[in-house]
Amino acid sequence: MRIATFNINGIKARLPRLVEWLSETRPDVACLQEIKTSDETFPVKDIEEAGYGAIWHGQKGFNGVAILARGQVPVEVARGLEGEAEDEHSRYLEAEVDGVRIASIYLPNGNPQPGPKFDYKLRWMKRLRARAAEIWAEEVPAVLAGDYNVIPRDKDVYSIKAMADDALMQPESRAAYRRFLGDGWTDALLSRHPAGGVWTYWDYQMNAWPRDAGFRIDHLLLSPPAADRLLDAQVDKEFRGREKASDHAPVWVELR
């Protein structure tokens, strides 16, 4: 079972690239982030024609998450995170597919920091950890997949100096991410590439893609029952280099 995460950076703008990727790689489940469209304008017919059922939690112009499943519609479990009733951002969607609990996550960026946006990021991570604990207690195979907007280690960025002041690399962001690992969740890509140097994002500016000046912010965290079934975890890097591509590459895990 292949479960992927892909920050699509605008599903309508990248629809040809998305359909192309689905057709060429055929993931069983695809978690999308930054779909940047309202619920009413989500391109469900195009997704269905590609062979996938879908659920989505949209927001006009920015944010938005979706979960696609090949040959079936994911069974929705939850949308949004509890703990902050005034939070209207569409950043979390959870479903079940073939007995695996899967969440599509678009964590707040947090810039500029310090400030309200960074405070919101840290609060959101705390709320996500609370939901993760509830899923953990169910003892099901689970995959928390998405754009976490956290560079976990110095080995996960092309230049420590270039990103030193960014919210993605602040000690508080990294500590909040490490708490998930401390709780027992497995960073799938890290488990296969402990030496680092594997990127999932390359900025559109500063010639970042040709220079391979990227970093790792798209993660798939596995519960113990899922980690026990882990066969592989990789990045579909080549798709970042295609015409009018997202600034992220798809990342996936293969479970037994």
Automatic annotation (TrEMBL):
Gene Ontology MF terms in the entry: double-stranded DNA 3'-5' DNA exonuclease activity; metal ion binding
GO BP annotations listed: DNA repair
PROSITE patterns membership: AP_NUCLEASE_F1_4 (PS51435)
Keywords: Hydrolase, Magnesium, Manganese, Metal-binding
UniProt-annotated site: Important for catalytic activity, residues: D218
Site positions per UniProt: Transition state stabilizer: N149
Cofactors, names only: Mg(2+); Mn(2+)
Pfam families: Exo_endo_phos (PF03372)
Broadest EC class assigned to this enzyme: hydrolase
Residues the record marks as active site: Y106, D147, H248
Keyword Magnesium among UniProt keywords: yes
Binding note for cofactor: Probably binds two magnesium or manganese ions per subunit.
UniProt xrefs under PANTHER family: EXODEOXYRIBONUCLEASE III
Protein name (database record): Exodeoxyribonuclease III
Top-level taxonomy: Bacteria, Pseudomonadati, Pseudomonadota, Alphaproteobacteria, Sphingomonadales
